[in-house]
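User: Structure please.
Assistant: Input sequence and predicted structure:
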Amino acid sequence: MKVLDRPLQPGDPVAIIEDEAVNRRATGWIVEEADFTPVPVSRIPASLDELFAEIEDKAVAVLCDHRLGRGGNVSYYGAEVVARSNRRKIPAVLLTSYANSDENSSIRRWRSDIPMLLSRGADTAPERLAEAFALAGEECRGIYSEARRPYRVIVRIQSCRYGPEGVVAECVVTAWQPRTTVDVPASMITECLNMPIERLVGKRLSADVNIYSPTAGELYFSDFKMGPGVPSGW
């Protein structure tokens, strides 16, 4: 795919990655209303490399559903597609009906490279899609809004529990909202620290977090490390 050094323009081809035909058609109409050219991907390959090879030279941007494995052998989520596309400097937007249910789990894992999450139905106006692509394009060119800029801060693991998609760590980010817990997939933390999440409960870690995010769903976390210990006497 061609890496753009400019904002998307009317007529630019946008790959639509959606496993359900009815949603693929509906998404194509939204893309057309936003003045882009829809390029539907009717077959979702088993691997991400195959997927990007499928749309290579056909599109300059990506619009992707989140849950792609229905009725097939796809092992990845759309959030990973969008994140990897944006890392490649190909503007990509995530559009899903499961924004509310998945934003703290499978979407959170990739949120640092998903500039804007669109909820199917509520956010499907062409103007919102154009706004999302503009934001993705800016981040691909290294321009970040204050709400998306990461800061190195302390994250405390308050507790952990089992959720629908595995163990979830309930975290407190004092620099964001000190009285609010935020769900983070425990594997995001344990993969960085090589330590069971149970041993990290009560510990203070450091991580890159966009602390000026207006909502918990838009928070992202990356690069967890052990934080400073609590001074004696506290």
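The helical segments are 21-33, 48-55, 78-87, 99-102, 126-140, 186-193.
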